[in-house]
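Lab channel / #folding
Pinned by the channel admin:
"Please post every new chain as: sequence first, then the structure tokens as a reply. Keep commentary short and put observations after the output so the thread stays searchable."

First post following the new format, from NK:
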Amino acid sequence: MSEMSATEDRMRGLLLRGLAGDGAAYHAFLKELSAHLRAFLRRRLMRLPDDVEDLVQETLLAVHNQRHTYEADQPLTAWVHAIARYKLIDLLRRRADRDALHDPLDDDLAVFATSDTEAADARRDVMKLLDQLPERQRLPIQYMKLEGLSVVEAARATGMSESAVKVGVHRGLKALAAMIGGST
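Reply from TO:
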């Protein structure tokens, strides 16, 4: 039995005992789940480390509130990860609204990748596409959309004017959409 399936079985057993009324087992389940959620979310929120703990707590609360929906014959990981993804999407939407900063290239990869391997593959594919762009488009996209720099910071890092950075991002995203099969 692999370590992952042993962990799944142990946590599933703790949850089922907790649902049957064993308070100590339920407490142990939540404690172990919080450690797993922290690692799961930390990988997806590398640029937002301050939000990880809040999202862990929101997800634990959602798991607790939705515990009656867990079906004992279903994998626990899939159920918990679905809840965590919904909470992650909610967080990203709130941040996008609050900060007026939307980072579709990086956020979509993190949210929809089902494994670290897929996220790495997706990032590699994006980087291959970016490598096809001229430097005046590639660098502004890389700095602003992937690394989260402001226009001013990206201009400083590239030696370009702020206007040139904005134009580079706009033209670069348009070129990427055309490469992927979007509109020109």
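NK: The two ends are 51 Å apart (CA to CA).
TO: also worth noting, Residues 107-113 have pLDDT under 50 and may be disordered.
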